[in-house]
Design a protein that fits this description.
Helices cover 31% and strands 14% of the residues. It is built from 10 helices and 10 strands. A hairpin with a 5-residue loop joins strand 4 (78-83) and strand 5 (89-94). Helix 7 (214-230) crosses helix 8. The chain is globular.
Length: 359
């Protein structure tokens, strides 16, 4: 059922990464049920052991995609069903960010939980295989309304602004994490910090009062962490800048029919370059005030890009630029706020029995 409704998970990447045209996702429709069975055996895996979700995610994230099954095409998506003790279970999707990020992945989990708890779900062998390619999602440009009529002028002008904004002639705020070692590159580390409802309410209200979102606040907090690590003296303050080259803007408000946000399992965010010169931020105010100043400066940069009509196509256009193939820094951070999880992934699912997503 998953492959029929979301065939993007069974696509392969073709093309040469160093060639003049970026690689493409290609899908081959199912020809027979035995072919489907082989793919399912490669793409879905059941593990039964003491359930330690954090350790499992850390270890699995170290595996570089794709998986290479014997006598089969490479697999870019794998679903793990974890069967633990004391009726504890886990469901884990491992795939590339090109088709998986926060919002769509939560939608995909919701769709799978719906199938798992629905006794009336159609058996896979009864589905019209060979026609599932009609369920492939649109590309990032078509899904957001198609090419803009004024792209050749307005879009190209915006594209030209990006290198300029990245060329601030000051020192980049950076910090190499203590945990990084050759064996830990790519390892996922989870840090959980829970605020009580009253503190959360005050934090959200204060952030909204200054015209910012929680995403702006999270990125400002990252900048504050870099400032604390670098221990900049007042005399050198203006010589630094903060760079958020992986700052994310959601494409969900820009998606247009026939894009189906429920089953079209693709990335729905774009990345923009955010640079803040520390000369815009006071070095003598309290850390709390600095945090708010940085958040407001980040919001202004976000607004500049997010309100531009050509913004949804910037990342797709940058993929065709020669520098898109250059090797990225070995340490790079990204801030992504998925918002309220319950909005996309209900905690309770009712089938023949009642289940809770956290159980």
């Amino acid at each position: 059922m998953r492959r029929f409704s979301c065939p993007i998970i069974a696509t392969d990447i073709v093309g040469d990464v160093s060639g003049p045209i970026p690689r493409s996702w290609v899908y081959a429709p199912v020809q027979c049920l035995s072919e489907l069975t082989h793919w399912m055996n490669d793409a879905f895996c059941t593990l039964q052991h003491d359930l330690n979700v954090n350790a499992f995610v850390e270890n699995t994230s170290l595996n570089r995609l794709p998986y290479w099954p014997q006598n089969a095409s490479p697999v870019w998506f794998r679903c793990y069903l974890l069967l633990g003790n004391n009726n504890k279970y886990g469901l884990y999707f491992h795939g590339p960010h090109a088709i998986m990020d926060g919002g769509p992945t939560l939608n995909a989990f919701a769709l799978m939980l719906q199938w798992m708890t629905n006794d009336a779900t159609e058996p896979a062998e009864n589905l019209p295989w060979g026609t599932e390619w009609h369920n492939l999602p649109l590309g990032p440009v078509s899904a957001t309304g198609g090419p803009r009529e004024d792209w050749d002028i307005v879009g190209i002008e915006l594209l030209k602004q990006l290198p300029d904004s990245e060329a601030i002639r000051t020192i980049l705020l950076a910090a190499r994490p203590f945990r990084i070692s050759q064996s830990a590159v790519g390892k996922t580390c989870r840090l959980e910090r829970v605020f009580d409802p009253a503190s959360t309410r005050r934090l959200v209200n204060k952030t909204r009062a200054i015209g910012c979102s929680m995403s702006h606040l999270f990125e400002a907090a990252y900048c504050m962490a870099l400032l604390a690590r670098n221990k900049i003296t007042p005399s050198m303050w203006n010589a630094y800048h903060f760079s958020g080259n992986s700052s994310a803007i959601s494409l969900i408000p820009h998606l247009r029919l026939p894009y189906d946000s429920r089953t079209h399992f693709i990335s729905s965010r774009t990345h923009i370059p955010i640079q803040i010169s520390m000369s815009e931020i006071s070095s003598i105010v309290s850390p709390r005030r600095q945090l708010l100043q940085i958040a407001q400066a980040i919001e202004q940069r976000y607004a500049r890009f997010s309100t531009h009509p050509c913004m949804p196509h910037i990342q797709a256009a940058r993929a065709y630029q020669p520098e898109a193939l250059l090797e990225s820094p070995d340490v790079e951070s990204s801030v992504n706020n998925v918002g309220s999880i319950e909005r996309r992934l209900p905690l309770s699912w009712k089938g023949s029995q009642c289940h809770r997503a956290g159980d």
